[in-house]
Amino acid sequence: MLLNNNVTEFILLGLTQDPAKKKTVFFFFLLFYLGTLLANFLIIVTIKTSRAFGSPMYFFLFYLSLSDTCFSTSIAPRMIMDAFLKNNTISFSECMIQVFSFHFFGCFEIFILILMAVDRYVAICKPLHYMTIMSWQVCSVLVVIAWVGACAHSLVQIFLALSLPFCGPNVIDHYLCDLQPLLKLACTDTYFTNLLLVSNSGVICTVSFLMLLFSYVIILHSLRNHSAEGRKKALSTCISHIIVVVLFFGPCIFIYTRPATTFSTDKMITVFYTIGTPLLNPLIYTLRNAEVKNSMRKLWSKKLISDDQR
Q1: pLDDT tens digits, 32-67
Q2: What Å distances lie between residue 188 and 149, 165, 183, 202, 303, CA to CA?
Q3: Do residues 57 and 120 lie in contact, with contact meaning Cβ atoms separated by under 8 Å?
Q4: 116 Cβ contact list (under 8 Å, min separation 6)
Q5: Rounded to whole angstroms, how far apart are CA atoms 310 and 307?
Q6: CA-to-CA distance for 269 and 253, rounded, in angstroms?
Q7: N-term to C-term CA, the chain
Q8: Tens of pLDDT, residues 278-290
Q9: Is-above-0.85 flag for pTM?
């Protein structure tokens, strides 16, 4: 497939070509990325070191923070450096690696969000059987399935990208390598490839989104039979999950469920779910979860005390 490809590198135009605006992009997105790393690192370390987080919900939250960190890292460092440098070229191999990693960790996050919804459904609707249904063996198997599913999805994306012949322009009007901007550069009819893209990425996003919404409707409906305190606690958890779902899936569905056309707003919408969501996820989960916040305070206060004693 690569023998007919005359392009060895691509030029990423980024969010803007204005030198002054590029400095702004560099500064703000560097802060966003560092904030994403710090926030998710705090959650990962807190869950791993605190004995209070032994439930499946925190087991999945750990992997959500891990996927957020990796998902953001597959995009943000390159984007930040391109805003700082004048020559924004990316080799063909690096472009394909970014396509794979971007879709791998993005798809893995989708599956983790589904598992978190399943966990909340069982905890609220089947509380007496919760630990039996969501045992550690079951949770571990589900996470492995999520890894395998994400890998299969990413391999499909790579196959579609490698099947495209590039023989002319190599300028990508975007800040990352993805199938949608690459389709514009292919010197062949991309109708069938775009159809496969929609049936893969588009269907995964749309079906997952509908499944999640349906699961939370069932959960919210079942809260009628709970006490006022139980309803308040469950509602708080579900609302935080729903916010994350809408913020992540809304832009994804807009990008991946339409014909091979591009709009001027595409790059900013992509920024929202590739850079914004990984930063918002840990903030939403920690700010709405008193247990996580208290454990973080205890953990890091102990850390500071032990450092002072040294």
Answers
A1: 999 999 989 988 888 888 766 677 888 898 999 999
A2: 30, 7, 9, 22, 59
A3: yes
A4: 57, 60, 61, 64, 241
A5: 5
A6: 11
A7: 61
A8: 998 888 877 666 6
A9: yes
